[in-house]
Amino acid sequence: GVNFSSRARGLRSAEVSAVLAGARVDLRDAVIDPAGARITIESTLGGVLLQVREDWAVTVNETIVGGGEIEAHVTPLAELPEDAPTLEVDILTRLGGTVITTGDVRD
User: Fold this and answer.
1) How far apart are CA 96 and CA 79, in angstroms?
2) pLDDT (0 to 100) of residue 107
3) Pairing status of strand 86-101 against strand 57-73
4) 65 — phi, psi (to 5°)?
5) 66-85 pLDDT, tens per residue?
6) In whole angstroms, how large is the CA radius of gyration of the chain?
7) d(CA 53, CA 28)
8) What does the pLDDT read at residue 1?
9) pTM more than 0.85
10) What letters, b where the CB count within 10 A reaches 16 and e where it falls short, cover 28-38?
């Protein structure tokens, strides 16, 4: 699999694709653009782990084809201030999976 971490300032968009493999993307050191950001994730017979910051307002739009699983372990929107940085995550999984989390995950 692939491990990637970002320290971007003004993150606006990104794409992640995992086919027959895994991808780990750590955005916890990145700063979202004031207008918000969008991440597009596609997985086919593979998995993606997306690590985000606890103070981000994360919304997930998901499509599962033929089976798979999507989990989001993020701070509930009701617990965040109205001006929290916003991250929209669009996920398409085909017999794969995606986990979005604010925490550390063991290898």
Assistant:
1) 30
2) 54
3) parallel
4) -120, 120
5) 989 999 999 999 999 999 99
6) 13
7) 5
8) 86
9) yes
10) bebebeeebbb
CA dist 33 and 93 (Å) reads: 26
Contact between 53 and 26 under an 8 Å Cβ cutoff? The reply is: no
Kindly report, residue by residue over 23-77, the tens digit of the pLDDT.
999 999 999 999 999 999 999 999 999 999 999 999 999 999 998 999 999 999 9
> Does the pLDDT at position 96 exceed 60?
yes
Distance of CA 99 to the CA centre of its chain: 7
Start-to-end CA span in the chain (Å): 11
8 A C-beta contact, residue 55 and residue 34: no
If you write DSSP's letter for every residue of the chain in order, what string do you get? Answer: -EEEE---EEE-EEEEEEESSEEEEE-TT-EE-TT-EEEEEEEESSEEEEE--TTSEEEEEEEEEEEEEEEEE---GGGS-TT--EEEEEEEEEEEEEEEESS----
Beta bridge partners of 63: 92
